[in-house]
Amino acid sequence: MRIGFETELFDPARGGTEVYVSRFARQMLAAGHEVHLFSSAFREAPAGARLHCVQPYHAAAVQAAITTARLDVMVGSGRRPGMNVVQPHGGTYLGSRRQNLALIRNPILRRMQAWFNSVNPKCRAAARLEQSMYAQQEPRPHFVAISERVRDDMRRDYHVPDERLHVVYHGVDTEQFSPAKKAVQRDEMRRAWGLEPDTVCFLLVAHNFRLKGARELIEAAAQIRRQRRDFAVLIIGKGRQAPFQRLARRLGCGDVVRFPGALREVERAYAAADVYVQPAWYEPFGLVVLEALACGLPVIATRITGAAELMTEGREGYIVESPADTTALASRMLALFDANLRVRMGQSSRALAERHTQQQHFHAMMKVFELAAQESAHSRRELPSDLRRRVA
Fold first, then answer.
1. Taking 70 as the threshold, does the pLDDT of residue 391 lie above it?
2. More exposed terminus of the chain, fewer Cβ within 10 Å: N or C?
3. Contact indicator for 362, 32 with CB cutoff of 8 Å
4. 179-353: which CATH topology?
5. What is the pTM of this model?
6. Which run of H or of E encompasses 73?
7. What pLDDT, on a 0 to 100 scale, did the predictor assign at position 366?
8. What is the pLDDT of residues 189-236, one digit of tens each?
9. Strands of 142-145's sheet, edge to edge?
10. In which residue ranges of the chain is CATH 3.40.50.2000 found?
């Protein structure tokens, strides 16, 4: 199959979509498919992929490059029309905007921001662009939702019919993220961060600290700090630390909340941790949650986190209904000071992750691509050679 992926700047170091496309492209290349990547610039592109550098990177130029490549399937992750398959890793624009409003605690300021969004030219343009993608008819895309919540947003906001909707959860590399690897690195990483053997370490990995609930995690930590001191909260990532450091000091938990910065090998952070906490306000999926589960960590996540849909309350961890409920969050964290409970939940976490591997995700996505390729080929009255044998 000749398949293309587009992203405005291909750089896996940016995380998120770029990491996903890089990993998936490598899997497709290993399976013998022809992979085309379309971007304005490339860093660390997979060996063997055919690179299309499009400059300036605007809709007409991208579409011209795609047409010239004569692909079986073209996959988009943003709001650009003309794709056979659309897989928005950040969910829908309107869904994201709703949850960003929920972050604003003052109701008057929240209403003011909602009004500003409704008249802001940039917000209106983004909404129109996404609307045009969902309204696209030829070719009518297949939409891949990375969680049921994203699927529901697609239904509600854009009336995508069920036959064009596919829920495909992300998969995790269960070799890179594993209890065995965690055990090897654990002592080294805990020493590096000054964690005592009996210190319970709660971990959050994020770049957008505000959206992923760093404030709420610190507020929960402050409640726990009034009762005990044998714990630490590590907040790993590239986010702005200073406002959250000030908050931790003001709430009296600055001695237990730490910001080590970004970490390229994030599995080393999981190795030091005892519990992973994701009190996010908006998280269409949350691959870090699945990585933590694969490492055998119990997880506390908010209901809005897509990966929480895979979990069962009280089995792999806990699901908090709202990040605003920091009392509930602190209560769940306190429960996991029980080492035996952490062990039991950690075993269930690993078992869950083993049912959601990268290979299983790859096969699920290939089914969508094959369906899209058959439709595309039918419109051209031809099938790709590898699919012609399957259809025959």
1. no
2. C
3. no
4. Rossmann fold (3.40.50)
5. 0.89
6. strand 73-76
7. 95
8. 999 999 999 999 999 999 899 999 999 999 999 999 999 999 999 999
9. 50-53, 34-39, 2-6, 73-76, 85-86, 142-145, 165-167
10. 2-172+358-391, 179-353
